[in-house]
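Budget justification, computational time. The allocation requested in the original proposal was used primarily to generate structure tokens for proteins on the priority list. As evidence of use, we reproduce two of the resulting records. The first is shown immediately below.
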Amino acid sequence: MDRLRKPNVRLVGRAGRKSGAEEKPTEISSRSHAEDQYRTASERRADGKALRENVPREAHAGWKPPKNRRDPVDLLLGTNEGRLAELLPIRHGRMVSSPFAFFRGSAAQMAADLAHTPCSGLKVQACGDAHLMNFGGFATPERNIIFDINDFDETLPGPWEWDLKRLAASVVIAGRHLRLSDNDSARAAIATARSYREHIADYASMRALEVWYDRIDVERFLKEVPSEEARKRAEERLEKVRSRTVPEHDYPKMVETTWCPTPHQGQPATDIPPHCKTSTGTQSRVPRRDRCLPRVAGRACPRAVRPLPLLRLGNQGGRRG
């Protein structure tokens, strides 16, 4: 006879037993470990309220610099480790152009400050740099344009509220940069936090796959645009995004395509000064597996397609940060 695999069955105690009473196995459970770890929406909500008793909302309202706070300039210079020295003046020049540009390039500084603040007790894989300009539209593999976070250079495990605090702070600083009134900037920050809270409440009542497939597409985004003028401006920008394809716009910037006399030879990579440079001083050849052989008039023509090992400046208040 074939051996029967023993089912994943274990004894569990009866729910609602009195505190201090000896637990007696009275029921049989075939639930998996993952199922035992599952908690309903009401249970998760109760857990959150319990955590909030230890760290109430009011604890997140203010911030005072700690006595042993590291000098911001020293911290900023410490983040230059590993960067190309000849490109650092460009990075610093961008950051000194405005307070908002400095904020965009100082994610490490804000993380160091938030590390001394009360923690909610719930950690996630945070974006790490969720400022206003790191949200935008981009195309999915299905050629749909969606609105989402578009930069994860600083992602790290951390308290969920760090991303929200950085986003709300960036809204206020951007408002000042645009010379909005303090009231308008404050209202924008409050609206940001309110939208976050409402969406999280919606997601808490949804199934995992429903949350996974939820997205903000073009139509949904345009419906939220407050004025006709702003909506028209957004449509013009979206049309420009649609006209840019990866092969025609992005691909030529990332690779160097040169014709080769033989399939096993390649041309050295070139720099794109001053912002992009090859990662080493040596000029390497492209491995054979990285080549493509496009067909012209039915004949295979060897061509080397060279990925450029680019070093970006990172998040220092540039065009993307």
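The second record produced under the same allocation is shown here.
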Amino acid sequence: MSIVIYHNPDCGTSRTVLAIIEAAGETPEIIPYLETGWTRPQLLGLFAAAGLTPRTALRATKSPAEELGLLDPSVDDETLLAAMLEHPVLVNRPIVCSPKGVRLCRPSEAVLDLLDRVPPGPMVKEDGTSVTDPKGDTLSDTPNVEERHFHPIDTDRLLSPDLATHAPRILLLYGSLRERSFSRLMTEEAARILTRLGAETRTFCPSGLPLPDDAEADHPKVQELRDFVTWSEGTVWCSPERHGAMSGIMKTQIDWIPLSLGGVRPTQGKTLAVMQVSGGSQSFNAVNQLRILGRWMRLLTIPNQSSTPKAFLEFGEAGRMKPSPFYDRMVDVMEELMKFTL
């Protein structure tokens, strides 16, 4: 098998690729391009065969690319090509040619696709990262998954996604039916902040919601809850702490939210903020349980949280929360929820 490697002996990746080729029993032609330099037809031919452009083949680090102003996206391919001819180190390495194709072998295991056989394992890179396991199987070998399910990273879609034209949709759940429910009052305060931050909010009233398995899923309150969950893009759960745990009313609402609804997971990938109110000293039992449930529901639970002790002291007669560090924490939690949801 005829293999050519454009090699930089000072590059760890290039050394690893050469070692893999030799371990596979091949004796490649080694071209020290830093010494020989490049020709324009040579670079154009290699780039075309490897599916590269001067921009994608540019070595941005450990090269004079930044010093020469080549990292500016407005620099055209002709300018890049001319710089590569003058400074060979600007071409990323190593480029390997074999009868199976041409490739810029970064990461180094990319060279395995160009070989007739995988070298015996285990093989490791200079930094200790495994290339093949003890049986010689590649760590990128996924026989149980069809190749069509893998796609190259699309930076345009990743960095410039289609943005929603509507306000972020946040659903708020609370866990008490008392006339003066502090978990409800807390969610009302949270909804006010979220609205001021640009969100659209809906709050579910759990009154009339049956116990799980005590009614069919077509019960009107169950359908209302599930419709709200499907509509939402983020969620706030606020429970009182009762007997050292979240309330049964809070758990009932969550239990009626299925992991799958018509083939769609209504909560997966959506954001969640957790809060609790307590009648006594500060505790985190309820929010810790809510976090476990959020993970089970495949929600992205934000790091921040709110726990308000002696809630009866934090709200005035009109049901509004008084200014305090606990109020500030609730505001912080809602700000973070908005950032994660956006």
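A brief technical remark on that second record: The mean pLDDT is 92.
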